[in-house]
Design a protein that fits this description.
Elements (H helix, E strand, L loop, with lengths): L9 E11 L2 E7 L12 E4 L2 E9 L2 E6 L1 H6 L10 E6 L18 E10 L4 E6 L13 E4 L2 E9 L4 E6 L1 H6 L10 E6 L1 H23 L1
Antiparallel strand pairs: 1-2, 1-6, 2-5, 3-4, 3-6, 4-5, 7-8, 7-12, 8-11, 9-10, 9-12, 10-11
Length: 211
C-alpha cells in the first residue's frame, strides 16, 4: 500500500490538462522529482494519489477518472496552474508529517485567509458529514499538506490552520483566497477511532432498546 507523509516536495506547474470521455489527462512538469520515477509509481497531486502513466524527461502524465474529479479540486486545473506534489514514501523514510493514503474525503471552502508578519492563517468550512473527524490540535491534510488544526468549531464547521513561512514558500497555500476549494484528507487514526466508537454506541443503544 502506497503512503504519503504530507510533506510535499514543492509546487509544480501543470503543462497541460485535457478531458476526454470523462478521463482527465494531466501532464505536470516535475523537474528533478522525476529521478527514478517509473510508470506505475504513485504520486500525490494536491493530496490525491495518482498513478504515473507516462514519464518523458521532466514531464509526467496522469489519468484522473470522473469520480475523482467530482470529489476533488483537480477538475478546476488549467495549464500553468501549480499543484502540490509528493512522491510516495519508501520503507525507512522519515515521516515528517502524518501518514496519508491520498484518498480525499471532500473539499473544504476557504472562508478567510489572513497574513501576518510571521505566518498565514487560513479558515475553512467542512461539510457537515465530516465534522466529527475534526478536533483542535488534530491532524488534517489540505491539498496534500500535513497541518495541525489550530481550532475547530463543530457547530459551524469552521477550522483554522496556521502556516509558517517555509510551508508557504514550498506550497500553493501561499495563494489561497476566500472561496478557494481545498482537498482534505482526515487523519486515518482519527477516522478509525471515531467510526469504531460510533458503531459501538449504536450497537449498545440498539441492545438497550430491545430490553
Amino acid at each position: 500500500m502506497r503512503m504519503f507523509s504530507g510533506i510535499v516536495a514543492g509546487a509544480f506547474k501543470v503543462r497541460s490538462c485535457t478531458t476526454t470521455n470523462g478521463i482527465q489527462r494531466l501532464v505536470l512538469e516535475l523537474r528533478d522529482l522525476t529521478k527514478n520515477l517509473e510508470i506505475g509509481a504513485s504520486v500525490a497531486v494536491n493530496g490525491v494519489c495518482l498513478t504515473a502513466v507516462a514519464v518523458e524527461d521532466a514531464l509526467v502524465s496522469f489519468e484522473v477518472i470522473q469520480a475523482t474529479l467530482n470529489q476533488t479540486n483537480l477538475r478546476f486545473l488549467s495549464p500553468n496552474d501549480y499543484v502540490n506534489v509528493e512522491r510516495s514514501a519508501k520503507l525507512g523514510d522519515e515521516i515528517g508529517g502524518h501518514l496519508l493514503s491520498g484518498h480525499i474525503a471532500d473539499v473544504a471552502e476557504v472562508v478567510q485567509a489572513r497574513q501576518s508578519a510571521m505566518e498565514r492563517s487560513i479558515s475553512f468550512i467542512v461539510p457537515e458529514e465530516w465534522r466529527n473527524y475534526f478536533h483542535t490540535k488534530g491532524y488534517i491534510a489540505l491539498d496534500g499538506v500535513s497541518l495541525t488544526i489550530a481550532s475547530f468549531n463543530h457547530e459551524t464547521g469552521v477550522g483554522v490552520v496556521n502556516l509558517i513561512p517555509e510551508t508557504l514558500r514550498l506550497t500553493t497555500l501561499q495563494n489561497v483566497q476566500t472561496s478557494t476549494l481545498l482537498n482534505f484528507e482526515v487523519d486515518p487514526t482519527t477516522l478509525a477511532v471515531v467510526d469504531s466508537i460510533e458503531r459501538l454506541l449504536e450497537s449498545k443503544l440498539a441492545a438497550l432498546k430491545t430490553k
